[in-house]
Amino acid sequence: MSAHTVDTELRLIGKLILDGELHCKTGLHIGAGKGSLEIGGADNPVVKDAFGRPYVPGSSLRGKLRSLLEQSSGLAVPSELVYLSKRKGQEVRIHQSDRPDDEICLLFGRNPGRMERVSGGEPLETACTSPARLTVYDAPLDPDSITPQMRENLDDELTEVKSENAIDRITSQANPRTLERVPAGARFRVRFILDVLCEEDKALTGRLVEAMRLLEDDALGGGGSRGSGRVQFSNLTLKWRSRNFYANGAPEQELLSGGDLDALQALVREEGFAAKLSE
Question: Residue 72: helix, strand or coil by DSSP?
Fold first, then answer.
């Protein structure tokens, strides 16, 4: 856990701006829901922007990073989970606590109030509000990553359709379904912004990098256990914009350019990294 306490004072020191690319190593499916189902189209279409181009919603990427950190920290257990929704068949359980040093709640934010615990017992009552330090933006598709050669083999201009079968174990009847995916080789442009509101926040950068590394060995979107959603981060650029950047037009500081996650993690683990993040 972090060094945050209930007495930690919050005042903007600056912002870390992390830009990069998200490469699809296998087809990627982030669903749009069946409201956009078209005659002859896939059963499960991908989410698209107003121009019909697939994108990765910031909420999907952020939620996956949070989930992976909760699991790796041992917080995805009933005693640490609360209900966001108890609607039958649509239950949503996430980690939340009232501990001021809880890095998950510090990174992703925490609202005060009364929440029902998954494990039963007394509901979680917290007046400890934590503003989210991490912002994850929608990641647009780089159209140039879909090459003419790839387009020749796609089912649509920018996407493919993967056919799957569910087999009844008694009758052996096949129940086919189709899944629309962004093809392997596609790239999305990602942006993360980490607000540093106190000296203790500087250590949270390492938790973000940890979550990104976990994602590379997990899956993003649907169908991950069936081969979809393997991704990789590359061409990462990390910049520091101090409070004086916003108040007085001071120059930003480039800390990393064109690196991968190994280089980013090595940077944030350097002994003098926190000292670079000054006002």
Answer: helix
Given the structure tokens 């934590």, which residue do they identify? 130
DSSP assignments along 40-77, one per residue: TS-SBPBPB-TTS-BEE-HHHHHHHHHHHHHHHTT--S
CA distance 42 to 267: 43
- Which structure tokens are listed for 85? 């929704």
Domain spans, the chain:
14-276
Tens digits of per-residue pLDDT, 15-42? 999 999 999 999 999 987 654 444 444 5
- The C-alpha atoms of residue 152 and residue 71 are separated, in whole angstroms, by 40
Beta bridge partners of 254: 239
* Count of beta carbons in the 10 Å neighbourhood of residue 60: 19
The pLDDT tens digits for 177-227 are 888 999 999 999 999 999 999 999 999 999 999 999 999 999 999 999 999
